[in-house]
Amino acid sequence: MENDSLSNDPLKPLGARPTLSSMPRILACLDRSGLSETVLSYAVMLARATAGTLTLINVIESSGDTTSESHDALMWELKRHEALQYMGQLLERIERLDVPVDAQVEEGRAAEQILSFTRQHPVDFLILASHGTHGLAEWSLSSTVSKIVSRTHSSFIIVPAIPVYQHAEQESCVRRILVPLDDSSRSLVALPLAVRIAKQQRAELILAHAIEPASFHHYSGVARADRKIIDDASSILESVAQDYFRQIAARLKGEGIEVSVIVTPRPSSVDLIYEIVASENVDFVVLAAHGSSGS
User: Sign of torsion, CA 30 34 39 40?
Assistant: First the structure.
């Protein structure tokens, strides 16, 4: 069985990391609200970083009430005309940036139509704003976004919706990119995208790795000598991890990327990622959906 943990040769898994497909397709989801338009600058950034093609999608949602005016033929044509006009204006702006772009207007429930589109067309990246037409709420994600990310097989980027209009021409300024990595090669699949964005944005990469601390000390039967062995083993593991990720950092620095490494004897958790984001002023996080646990 192949060992999926830290390799003696960190350059081997790095060199074997998956490459992005040529001309990846990026799907930017818009509901014509100012909040959803925060995705545009990130979509342009990603298209440039990956040499990909960009598709803008807008779903005209129906209420499900056949007696409402939203289902009246005339009102539907008016809404469709407004949507096409809106998307046409966005196309003109993005085309001026020399980014290959097209647009789609669909009708129905937003989550269902977007997922249907990704099933019918090969989509490498989905870009969504955390909130849209219905505004900011107490939940970190809107119900539509939650449905999409829980069912899609595409990679996705969620942009925090802020009540500030961002022009597509104002390409997002990403300065510090966090890449959480565990001790498996699976987590390295996030690295190619992070590297491309770092190069395109001239951003710093922060490689973060958490070492699960030994949890035997609370057992009363553990002798003092055995506890010292556990502590020594933990120190050795931390030193090995430091060397491993520093070698990866050295390889990336050779490609002209500024890189820093954080190795911490803490349990890996979402809270830890939040802490690093806050303490290191991170403005973009790239991570694999699965790591050493495989789930």
Answer: positive
